UniProtKB/TrEMBL annotation:
GO molecular function list: thiaminase activity
Protein name in UniProt: Aminopyrimidine aminohydrolase
Keywords: Hydrolase, Thiamine biosynthesis
Keyword Hydrolase found: yes
EC numbers for this chain: 3.5.99.2
Known catalytic reactions: thiamine + H2O = 5-(2-hydroxyethyl)-4-methylthiazole + 4-amino-5-hydroxymethyl-2-methylpyrimidine + H(+); 4-amino-5-aminomethyl-2-methylpyrimidine + H2O = 4-amino-5-hydroxymethyl-2-methylpyrimidine + NH4(+)
InterPro entries: Haem_Oase-like_multi-hlx (IPR016084), Thiaminase-2/PQQC (IPR004305), Thiaminase_II (IPR027574), Thiamine_Salvage_TenA (IPR050967)
Family as reported in the entry's similarity comment: Belongs to the TenA family.
Pathway entry: Cofactor biosynthesis; thiamine diphosphate biosynthesis
Length: 224
């Protein structure tokens, strides 16, 4: 059972194959044992900066689609964390590697990157908060699982900073908060037996598609 809530554990189990491909991808294993080429890591970070711009927009949309103050609070905290912490982290790492802010901001967006974020935004534009959260969850919780596992299994310190960021108690708390938001949003809109409703399988399908898009994102990272 996951620490990130009941619905997340159910959605992940319904998307087992893609979930494994995502959380055990060759890119992730290269972070774990330090064999990931630096050029691939920096290429990934630059694309991820662009990714985070659109992800922040998607979380801002979650504020718009909220129905309670508690939902607005959880979504706006994530927007704030993304813009003031995670994006800052990327700017800092890139600067330390000789990539200026101007260069970073001018990064051309790769199609795999564009496909993922616009898929998430479209889930939110055309649906409600549940559709949006089902598309957002793999990104948040997947990195939480990867960070926790790599902390225990890393055999190299090369990518230790990256691993530490996602295994930190702050990040793990954020994953738990999103898990609680997902559970409570489902119960509010579909009832406690949300698994028996017709919408549940569609939400699981959205979660699976977003997971597949995460796999493609790692794959893109391996091909600078
Ligand atoms: C491709 C890609 N997928 C997931 C994350 C992780 N992530 C994205 S937004 C966010 C903050 C909480 O919502 C976190 C941790 C990433 N950086 N890049």
């Amino acid at each position: 059972m996951s620490e990130y809530g009941k619905a997340f554990a159910l959605m992940r189990d319904a998307a087992q194959g893609p979930w494994r491909d995502y959380t055990r991808h060759a890119f992730v294993e290269g972070l774990r044992d330090g064999t990931l080429p630096r050029v691939a890591f920096l290429h990934y970070l630059r694309q991820d900066y662009v990714f985070l711009i659109h992800f922040s927009r998607a979380w801002a949309l979650a504020v718009v689609k909220s129905e309670t103050h508690a939902e607005m609070l959880a979504a706006s905290r994530t927007v704030n964390g993304l813009i003031s912490e995670e994006m800052q982290l990327h700017i800092g790492i890139c600067e330390a590697e000789g990539i200026s802010q101007d260069e970073l901001f001018a990064t051309p967006e790769r199609p795999e990157n564009l496909a993922y974020t616009r898929y998430v935004l479209e889930a939110g534009y055309s649906g409600d908060l549940l559709d949006l959260l089902a598309a957002l969850a793999p990104c948040v919780m997947g990195y939480g699982e990867i960070g926790t596992r790599l902390t225990a299994e890393a055999t190299s310190d090369t990518y230790r900073d990256w691993i530490d960021a996602y295994s930190s108690s702050e990040y793990q708390d954020a994953c738990q908060a999103v898990g609680e938001l997902l559970d409570s949003a489902l119960i509010r809109r579909l009832g406690a037996d949300f698994r028996t409703t017709p919408r549940w399988s569609r939400l699981c399908q959205t979660f699976r598609t977003a997971t597949e898009l995460e796999v493609n994102f790692w794959q893109m990272g391996l091909t600078p």
